[in-house]
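Sharing a chain and its predicted structure for anyone who wants a worked example. Both blocks are below, sequence first, C-alpha cells second.
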Amino acid sequence: GSLIEQLTTEKYECMVCCEVVRIVAPVWSCQNCYHVFHLNCIKKWARSPASQAEDGNSGWRCPACQNASTQVPKTYTCFCGKVHNPEWNRNEIPHSCGELCGKKRQCLDCPHLCNILCHPGPCPSCPAFVTKTCECGQTSHSVRCGQSTKIHCSSVCGNTLNCGKHSCTQVCHAGKCSPCQLTVQQVCYCGNNFKEVLCGTKEELFDGFGNFSCQKICGKKLNCGRHNCTQICHPQPCQLCPRLPQVVYRCPCGQTPLSKLLELGCVERKICTDPIPSCGKTCGKPLSCGSYEFIHTCESLCHEGDCRPCSHTSNIYCRCGFKKKVSVKSLTMVTAAITFMCDKRCNKKRSCGRHKCNEVCCVDTEHKCSLVCGRKLNCGLHRCEEPCHRGSCQMCWQTSFDELTCYCGESVIYPPVPCGTQPPECKKTCTRPHDCDHPVYHSCHSEEKCPPCTYLTQKWCMGKHELRSNIPCHLTDISCGLRCNQMLKCGMHKCKRICHKGECLIDEECKQPCVIPRLYCNHPCMAPCHPSSPCPTTSCCAKVRYPKKIHCKFTGKLIAAISIATKLTDLQLGDSVEISRLITKKEIKQARLQCDEECLALQRNRRLAEALEIDDHSDPFNVRSSGPKYSDFLKEDARKDFKFVSDVEKEMRMLVEAVNKGKHTKKSHCYPPMNRDHRRIIHELAQVYGIESVSYDNEPKRNVVITAVKGKSICPSNTLTSVLDKEMQSRPPPPIPHYKQTDKSIGNSGLSKPFKEEPVIDYFDVQD
C-alpha cells in the first residue's frame, strides 16, 4: 500500500540517482526487497565496478538489499512480468498491467497463485482454507492456506524409531523422532568381547553374529579343524587354512613348485598337518634388518616358519643423518633406527624467525615455532596469544561496549570501542581540581596529572634576599644568584654559597678562616674556624710592605713586638717612629733585607725623578684623573684577552646608550656561557659602567646577565681598551714609591711616612 501511494503521487525516489520516479518513466523492481529503480539507473549501476559481488562471479548487487543477480535488466515490464512496456492508465496502478498478478506466493506449501491485480511489493498471504494434519498425522484441522504455524495434537507420536524395534513415546512433535535411547549389549565378531551401546547403533555392521571388531586375534577354528584363525577380529567367515594341500603349491622358500619335488620322489601331502617338502636351497628371503641400499637375506636352507636372526652388522645413521656413524648388530637395526639419536642440536631458525629450533637430532623441515608470541598488541594492554610468527601482530580483537568519554564528559566515543582507543579530544577548559586558584588555560585532558601552572607570580628566593617577579606558579625553589650571607652556627662567619635551599651547613662544621685579630700584629688568625677554642699560637703569614713584602715572624722577642704594637697608632697618624731603641743592633742586622735588582731600580728612578723635579703624586700624562680607575688585575686580564674585553665594553656602551635614549628604564643583555675568568672581567667592568650584573645557571653553562638602568649607568670617557692603548704608546716611567729613604736610612732615622698595607683584592665572583 505504501509503494502504491508513493508511486501514484510521484513521491518515491530512486536510490541510484535520488530523483523522483515519474509515473511514465521505465522502472525495474527488485524481486527480493521490492525496491523500485529507474531502468536506466539500474543498468548503469549493474555495469559499474562498485556493484560487483565480493567473489566476482555472482554478478551484481542490488543497491538496497545487496542481493546478487546474474542478469542485467534490459526491458521495461510490469510488476508481474507479463506485459512489456506497459502503458499508463489513470485508473490503474502506475507501471502495472491492470490484470491479475498470477505469481506464486512465498509460502512453499501454498499451491494457489496471487489473485489480486498487478501490484508492486510482495503478494499477500493466501486467503483459501485447506485441511492440514498434525505433525504425527493422527488428527486433521481446517486452516488458511497461508498459515505457517504447525498443528500439534495431544496424542503420543508412536512412529517407529531408528532401531526399527521400538516406537516414539513423545507427544506429537515436529521433525524426525529422536534416536532410541535404550541401551543394548553387542558382541564382537569373534565373540570374546561385549559392550553396551544405544539401540540401533551400527546395526548395518551386524554380520549375523557380532556388530564390531575388538582388534584382537580372532582365534576361531579354521575349516580344517586343526589350526586357529590368526587374523584380527573380523566379520564371518574366516579364511581357508593356509596349509591345506590344495592351497600350498610351492616349497617354504617359494623358489621350487611342489610338482617338481614330487617328481623327485617327495611324499605327497594329504592333510594340512603334513610337512611341506623343502627344496634344499638357501632360503634367501629378505630380512627386516637391512636398508634400502643393502638388503640382508636369510642364509639358512629352505625351511618353514620364521627366519633366524641375521648375523651381519651394519653402519647406521642417526635420524637426522649426521655424519656420526654407529655400528650395531642387524638384529636390532629396526629398533636402533627408531631410538638412536645424536647429540647435535639444530641451529636453524624456526618459522617465526625469532627463536632457534634447538631440537636434538632434528628431522623437521618446516621448524614450526610452538611458543606463544607474547608481544604487546597495538593497544598496549594485551599480548598476542597466537603462535610465534613473523611480521606484525594482528589488531587487538577485544572491544568495549561502554561509552568512552573525556574527563568532563563533553566528548563521547560510542560503542563498540576498540581496545587501546584513547579518550576523545576535548576542547573545553580543564575541570580537574588544581592546587592554585589561578586561571586555567589548558584544555580537558585524559592524563591524571595536569600540566604545571605557568601563571606569572611574585615569589621570594630561597634565601629570602629579594622578591622575584615573573616567576611561573609551579616553580618553588628559586635562586636569586646572590650570596646566601646567612650567619652560620659558629656566629662569626656568613654563608658564602649561592642562594640555596635548606640549612647552610647540615652535618659539616664551618671551615672558613678565623678573622679574630692576632694579639701582637692585629692580622686575622686565618686558622680554620674554632668558635669554642682560643686561636692557636702559629706564625703569621700576612704580607706587609717593609718596603719589600716579607713574612711577619713574631715568634720570639715578645717585648720588642709589644713595644712596636703600641706605636702602630702613631704610624697610622703619619708620624715617624724610631725603632732603633726597640730593636738591638744585632736584631736590626738580622732583620735587614739584602738589596736586589728591584731596590737598585727604585733608587735609580728616585734619583731621576729628583733631577727632573717630578713629584710622586703628579700625573703628567693625565692617566690617573682622566677617567675611571681600573685595577691592575683587570688590566692584566685585558692584556691577555684584548679582543674579549673590547667586545664586552662595546656591548656595555651600546646597552647604556640604548637605555638612556629609549623609553624603557631598564635593558638587559645575556652573555653566552663562559668560564669563571671571563665572568669576573664582566662583573668588574659592570661596576665601572654602573651596570647590574648577575650570574645564572650551573657549570658548565653558567652565564652572566647585565642590566643597565636609566640615570644610573654611565659610559666612562676612557674605556679600558683606550687606557691600555695609551700606556702602550707612552710607556711612562714606573710610579715613585711612597718613601724617601733608602734601606740604609731605615735603621738610622726611622720611618718618615707610614707604610700603607697593599689591599688584597678578592676577585672571587660574588654572584657566582
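Comments welcome. The mean pLDDT is 79.
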